Amino acid sequence: MGFYPHSADDVRKMVEKLRINNVDELFSSINKKKLNPEINLPEPLTENEAFEELKKLANMNFSDMICFTGAGSYDHYVPAIVDEISGRSEFYTAYTPYQAEVSQGTLQTIYEFQSMICALTGMEVSNASMYDGASALAESIIVAMNQKKKSNIVLIPENINPDYVKVIYTYIAGLDINVVRVPINKNGLLDINFLKNYQNIGQVGALVVQNPNFFGLMETQIDEIIKFKQENSIMLIGVVNPITLPVFKTAPDIDYDILTGEAQPLGMYRSFGGPYIGFIATKEKYLRKLPGRIVGMTDDTEGNRCFVLTLQAREQHIRRDKATSNICSNQALCATRAAVFMSVLGKQGMKELAFVNIQKARELMEILLKKGFELKYNGTFFNEFVVYCKNAADIHEKLLKKGIMLGIKLEDSSFLNMKDCLLICATEKSSLKNFEKLEKALDEVTI
Amino acid sequence: MGFYPHSADDVRKMVEKLRINNVDELFSSINKKKLNPEINLPEPLTENEAFEELKKLANMNFSDMICFTGAGSYDHYVPAIVDEISGRSEFYTAYTPYQAEVSQGTLQTIYEFQSMICALTGMEVSNASMYDGASALAESIIVAMNQKKKSNIVLIPENINPDYVKVIYTYIAGLDINVVRVPINKNGLLDINFLKNYQNIGQVGALVVQNPNFFGLMETQIDEIIKFKQENSIMLIGVVNPITLPVFKTAPDIDYDILTGEAQPLGMYRSFGGPYIGFIATKEKYLRKLPGRIVGMTDDTEGNRCFVLTLQAREQHIRRDKATSNICSNQALCATRAAVFMSVLGKQGMKELAFVNIQKARELMEILLKKGFELKYNGTFFNEFVVYCKNAADIHEKLLKKGIMLGIKLEDSSFLNMKDCLLICATEKSSLKNFEKLEKALDEVTI
Amino acid sequence: MKKLEKLIFEKSVQGSGTYRVSTSNSGAIINEIPDNLKRQDFDFPEVPENEVMRHFLKLSRLNFCVDEGFYPLGSCTMKYNPKINERVASLEGFNELHPLVPMDKCQGSLRLMYELSDYLKEILGMDSVSLQPVAGASGEMTGLKIIREYHKVKGNLHKKIIIMPDSAHGTNPASAMMAGFEVREVKSNDRGGVDIENLKSVIDDNVAGFMVTNPNTLGLYDENIEEIAALFHEKDALLYYDGANFNAIMGKVKPGDMGFDIVHLNLHKTFATPHGGGGPGAGPVGVKSKLSNFLPVPVISKKDNKYILDYSLQNSIGKVHAFYGNFAVLIKAYTYIRMLGKDGLRKSSEYAVLNANYIMERLKDKYSVPYKRTCMHEFVISAKKIKKETGISAMDIAKALLDKGYHAPTMYFPLIVEEALMIEPTETETLTTLDEFCQAMIEIYNMCYNNAEEMHSMPKNTPITRVDDVKAARNPKINYYKAKL
Amino acid sequence: MKKLEKLIFEKSVQGSGTYRVSTSNSGAIINEIPDNLKRQDFDFPEVPENEVMRHFLKLSRLNFCVDEGFYPLGSCTMKYNPKINERVASLEGFNELHPLVPMDKCQGSLRLMYELSDYLKEILGMDSVSLQPVAGASGEMTGLKIIREYHKVKGNLHKKIIIMPDSAHGTNPASAMMAGFEVREVKSNDRGGVDIENLKSVIDDNVAGFMVTNPNTLGLYDENIEEIAALFHEKDALLYYDGANFNAIMGKVKPGDMGFDIVHLNLHKTFATPHGGGGPGAGPVGVKSKLSNFLPVPVISKKDNKYILDYSLQNSIGKVHAFYGNFAVLIKAYTYIRMLGKDGLRKSSEYAVLNANYIMERLKDKYSVPYKRTCMHEFVISAKKIKKETGISAMDIAKALLDKGYHAPTMYFPLIVEEALMIEPTETETLTTLDEFCQAMIEIYNMCYNNAEEMHSMPKNTPITRVDDVKAARNPKINYYKAKL
Ligand SMILES: Cc1ncc(COP(=O)(O)O)c(C=O)c1O
Ligand SMILES: Cc1ncc(COP(=O)(O)O)c(C=O)c1O
Q: Which of A40, A157, C40, C384 has the CB geometry, 3.0–4.6 Å to C418, for a possible disulfide?
């Protein structure tokens, strides 16, 4: 089944108008020997058949496992209104809003997204979205390092999402940026002494802090970090989970220069890893250094308030090889989803969401401690934490057979020295029932 | 979680404006002893919790059984575009289109529905929808009998959907209408001789013919039925499955006075029996006798073509106890779905749909015959047919355990004398894979 | 510029439909159909999926809907339809379920129906509930057939009269007619309630029942309801409660406590299920225990910890729907009740009533309020005086509201108020919306006296201007293909 | 009357949000957070769900979209997005799947990705595919990093130049910059293709690669492509194919057969996944076998009849996305390919090209076509002459189209054509739509000469009139809460 509507009669009319004999004449620029090649594809399907095929594939996944796993992808409830609005043709079948006169829907929505990201992060300005949290961080580092032209070192602690680090390495390959990893202390936080004693400090352009970090821990050494960054005129890049921000300190109390992160928790399904949505918020003074789209407020010729893609002089289609980034299509529909999510939860809902996540993670922790696990790090955590016990890998495996994914093994995630450590996550969706199932399963597998 | 937005401050302002002390003062007309009674309901839920509860209930159903069952509810594929359009707020959160100026969306859609129902049925006019096929038939009978004031008998063959018959009895209770059942012949069709020899013919106002009938059979005695009805000036009411009509003879070749039926196959899910949608089409001369809403074309004051609820003088809000029916809210969104379904399939798709259903039913029949079932009736059928074998009930039961519902036992459906007969259905969704599963399961249970 | 849309038929081009139901050559099967049963060619649109989408998208935008704005349509309770309801009703476990699966294969649906029945019993003060009726009018017919059957069983065949107020909704007399009853009206008194003296004069032994809403169609609560109930019960007549106005009293008072024997509810009003542009709705019927046996079958019962479709009711009136009613609508109402709980339902009604009184208070100096009382969830104003003074009718005012981006109130109903406009805000509107609406109403009032001419030509900003109803009815065009027949 | 919508912030009323994440008193937990980590109060909207719905519904209506009408936006391939794709992508089995589940728990997703990679390999004539890049530009960066790594592994660190035509899309040079390359432009010849002589003069041993689309951004197919490829391959430079224009040649010719080493596709163009108002898209990258080892990890492999996430590529450039790319977008492209099959894809391109040529033919007497050749799926016209004669610019023409209910063509791109308008109809439009569009273009042409003044003030029927870009950029207002900081 295809989606090209011409009847045979239509084609005849058109071919006549073009004074050709058949459509293939239009392809005469193509080397005859290469034209109309064999392509080995399955037979075409009707809609019904396609649906059945895809359902079959979907059902081969174990999406209904009880999943106490975060590590960059979180199981939050998506309010139905989010799907309903982002499912409106007007949002999802529009192109990038180049023609402002017929794109105020997307433009105003993105403006509202930007404003809410600013409100949550406490920063002054935000862009319209990035591909995901990892690329947002990578591009943030490039922005920061471009501010510090004479420096070529970015400090990245060991407690940062390891997949983000991989993306950073790819992005900076070929650019004059070097990564120096900051070790972590026994509390799972970055080793502040390493910073204080770091020799090449003159070369350092930026420091990255993930907060909560990959182990779920909130950074408590903020005052020292701020002091370090201010004394050495280093750009401070924060990587945050946006749903922590209604509760935890952020800018301007923390002097971040750039605050970036993954907004998947704001209304995106886990969806096997994408589409997600990165955000970058910064101080006004760096506005013109931002990558990606930015929507600004202005007037039309009749004086109506309206919105438009602005500061395009930064972008690839104007500045070409001098642009702040190559990003063009971004994740606008995800930003729309996030805007609806934040709007419908509102201030109270966003606070409750943070509270419940904190609460649930503590309940889950209690269960695990009771069953013999130990906390790897003491400290304040949000909805993730690391536990260990001597046969964690084995327990993890056995629970999987029972339909429970008890986090990830840190050993598998580039933390080779963290054998028998699991990174665990609870959210508002972690129901009492699932906790009970976990307890029961743990009892069974640990005998 | 509720949906009333007033803040405490709003309430204070409003209460002040009304010069009352609290909201309960507004309820002072209510007997104090009866005010604010205890109500035993479960605790309120958040959206997430409600979703989990409902998912639990949904999962308690065995909706994924392989289901070779029709009997008034059919497993047809619903194109995604049908959900997408009927899921637009503009359609599903509107009221009945009383204000034509702001309801042209629904009005034109219903006009198109009416027109396509007319095109399919071959009748001249159609109404906007009825509650379901059963009530549409019941109301059709009342319309017909009102045309024949001196008669009080309606002839209803035994091969009609038994649930429809039950609804007819309820509807006519208290009215001066009597049902006489027409026996069926050995081919499962109505006994034409019974009609010819019927004594009280002068009392007969209408004859109902279901085509295909409850056993899936097409009526072949059409010429004799037409002759009978014309000679005796009886109203002929046809009950049809709309998806048969691209292939099978209908009005005006068959002189139906009213053609009614269930349009569930046109884009409604089976949904445990509802919402479905009845339709009634008739000759123009009976237009003003129709129950329910009717949309007509007209102009606005500027001469734009537009649509409006018309012929309201028939309806309850004008005619009150002299109305053609009490129906008010009907099944408008279902009519919208049917309109989209028919539009997207279009002429070719509707033909293919009929063809494939005929084809699949024959393939299924072959399998069953091969496995030892016999056809109860010989004759032309659409997508349903009756088979029997001596331990059909037992096989039916055993297949259920294997996740296959091989039709319904006719014995359970008021056909007490049809022990060991199953009414079976195939549709375009009956896949080869499911046929194979059936074959395999049959081999296992019949050993 | 009016943004109208062509008809789907006008977009049809032969051979241009893109949808395929079959990839194989399915047409050959036609040879197995006897020629004398075959149909010849027929008219039908041929439009590609892309254009079908655009067509209905554009049509949709010609509608006003509650997700767009304020819909103060009295008697219709156009409250917000929570989006979660649409999500749960489309779960595959519900919508792909055949109604005739064996009972052990549909325990989820049955349990939902069983529990919903229970909740409604609690809320209504009734003893049994049928979820089968699919709309208000369907519930009415069901209830009236029960009344008929009740008297029949008792041998009281002479009880052929249903009394109802002159303010009754049109479906009430029409339903009574469909159940084989005759209608007798009782007058309303000057408080908008039933005139007890008049009632006494019309009541007699032939009366089978009384049908009323309370609050009634004026939005007023009849404080004599218990006395009225007693008058009917004395004659062994049954009291029927039309639940269209139930949004006023959820959790505040139970119809069962007022003395009613039978109630229907409109789930598509009070319980937030969407109206769909005219359905599908659901009109469950609750009855007192003496009538439980008369309900339509099946009802949902519990037996050995299993939920069953129970067909065993002795005096059942039969069936009013081929299966069990509009099941998907029931899912939505169930979800709504579960989310709100007791307090949420009660507060919903309280705010609905507060909102109505607030608007009435703000408008009463401009528009005359025929009954000077606290109203319940809605109230009626009359444009009679305005019409006399300016020539502007209730209709003109309604149309002017459309132009300001509001849906119109219900017009010319109930019939006992001249130039009636019935306003029902519901609880889901914000104070800002209410204030803006009042402001619009006041502007319109001023316009009646300052610029009457303009008022007659409203609406102007809508997709079309006023329609020619008369033309539509005189020469009905209801089938595009008609000309070709 | 302009139907604008307030900001969500302007609808906020303290305490009026209705959404609850928790029914219990969850706030107490705050006491377990150390004071020095706690945030003080913050600004955020408080709006009830009802009003949130209305807000975004009204906003949505201010957008033009492909489900509303014709979108001849060159280079963007705004074809119809089949609704089935949305349905399958929202299956719970896909969208509730955590990306880090063990591989035996996600075989459905892996198989889909594996098969999609296979299909794309077939369609492209490439040997390996990565589905990880999430947009065209993301694919470009991936491809260029591969080029860089390829030369690095070979020890050719001096290869720092990427050549591209002067007609290249802005992302191409920007991507080259992000991969640490310098850009060198090659001129276009008078047929719109690469000027071979000029190419020979700019090519040298420092060249790492060549980046081009074919058909190029003028919609023209470069018949010298194989010769060009040979010139680069001689220097061990790699050829990169920007697949933005692939809708012209699906099933007609494979980039691999033209001589390309690396290709990206825009699934959100050619493969009918919706554009979402600016993403999410997907930009898979295919490479010839010598580059397979350089792809981002993981790729999907098959081992012992199981699909696996394969991290074993020796020279992998690493990762370009935290997980595996925009998986949900991949589902849609997969479904599209499965439905159309080989013939469907080929016909899509044929009709896309036919449609473009048909419009060009109908417009060429009015609007000047800079390159007089058969075009492929799109073509560029120039308003240079019109501008000189009437003062009407390409921008004015584009805005006039908005007023007639069409989206505008791409304007002022490619840069080598003055007053460029680039028109791409796609295959999903009907002949009626094409004819009506041509008619509109001709009317606009006539208006340029008859009523130039009017042309400058277009559009008028849109939600807003032309915007003040300069004001927006001069004093950027991009955060509502900014004033309060
Ligand atoms: C008072 C009253 N009764 C009955 C009805 C009929 O309800 P339905 O339209 O659901 O049949 C209505 C509906 O408008 C009503 O307002
Ligand atoms: C020729 C060309 N190359 C590259 C791109 C960039 O694609 P994306 O927006 O998906 O990053 C585009 C998109 O407009 C394009 O037209």
A: C384
- The closest alpha carbon to B126, from B270, B259, B308, belongs to B259
Pairing between β-strand C182-186 and β-strand C161-165 as defined by DSSP bridges:
parallel
Q: Do B46 and D21 touch (CB under 8 A)?
A: yes
Phi, psi at residue A227, to the nearest 5°? Answer: -60, -45
Q: Are A423 and A407 in contact (CB under 8 A)?
A: yes
- CATH architecture of the domain with residue range C83-339: 3-Layer(aba) Sandwich (3.40)
Residue closest by Cα to atom 6 of ligand 2? D136
CB A237 within 8 A of CB A144: yes
For the segment C227-238, what is each residue's pLDDT rounded down to a tens digit? 999 999 999 999
In the 3-class helix/strand/coil scheme, how is chain C assigned residue by residue?
A: CCCCCCCHHHHCCCCCCCCCCCCCCHHHHHHHCCHHHECCCCCCCCCCHHHHHHHHHHHHCCECCCCCCCCCECCCCCCCCCHHHHHHHCCHHHHCCCCCCCHHHEHHHHHHHHHHHHHHHHHHCCCEEECCCCCHHHHHHHHHHHHHHHHHHCCCCCCCEEEEECCCCCHHHHHHHHCCCEEEEECECCCCCECHHHHHHHCCCCEEEEEECCCCCCCCCCCCHHHHHHHHHHCCCEEEEEECCHHHCCCCCCHHHHCCCEEEECCCCCCCCCCCCCCCCCCCEEECHHHHHHCCCCEEEEECCEEEEECCCCCCCCCCCCCCCCHHHHHHHHHHHHHHHHHHHHHHHHHHHHHHHHHHHHHCCCCECCCCCCCCCCEEEECHHHHHHHCCCHHHHHHHHHHCCCCCCEECCCCCCCCEEEECCCCCCCHHHHHHHHHHHHHHHHHHHHCHHHHHCCCCCCCCCCECHHHHHHCCCCCHHHHHC
Determine the residue of B328, B329, B330, B333 to mutate for testing ligand 1's pocket, defined as the one with the most ligand atoms within 8 A of the Cβ atom: B328
Atom of ligand 2 minimally distant from the CA of D217? 1
pLDDT tens track for A144-200: 999 998 999 999 999 999 999 999 999 999 999 999 999 999 999 999 999 999 999
Q: What does the pLDDT average to over B401-422?
A: 94
Confidence tier at B413 by pLDDT (50, 70, 90): confident
**B39 lies in a domain?**
no
pLDDT digits (tens, 9 = 90+) for A298-318: 999 999 999 999 999 888 888
**Subunit contact D431:C13, Cβ cutoff 8 A:** yes
B31 touches chain C (CB under 8 A): yes
Count of structural domains within chain A: 2
Q: Which residues of chain D have pLDDT under 70?
A: 1-3, 483-485
Q: Are residues B293 and B366 in the same domain?
A: no
Cβ separation D83–B80 shorter than 8 A: yes
Fold held by C348-474: Aspartate Aminotransferase, domain 1 (3.90.1150)
- What do you get for the CA distance between the two ends of chain C, in Å? 35
- Nearest residue of C to residue D20, measured between CA atoms: C339
Q: Give backbone dihedrals phi and psi of D128, rounded to 5 degrees, phi first.
A: -145, 155
Closest residue of C to A85, CA-based?
C83
Task: Please say which residue of B322, B342, B362 terminates a domain.
Answer: B342
Q: Number of residue pairs across C and D with CB atoms under 8 Å?
A: 52
- Domain of A371, CATH number, reads 3.90.1150.10
Whole domain around residue A95: which residue ranges? Answer: 80-342
ipTM for the whole complex:
0.98
pLDDT in tens, A187-218: 999 999 999 999 999 999 999 999 999 999 99
User: What residues of chain B lie within 8 A of the CB of C226, using their CB?
Assistant: 31
Ligand number with the minimum distance to the CA of C422: 1
Query: How remote is the CA of residue B389 from the centroid of ligand 2, in Å?
Result: 65
The CATH number of the domain where B135 resides is what? 3.40.640.10
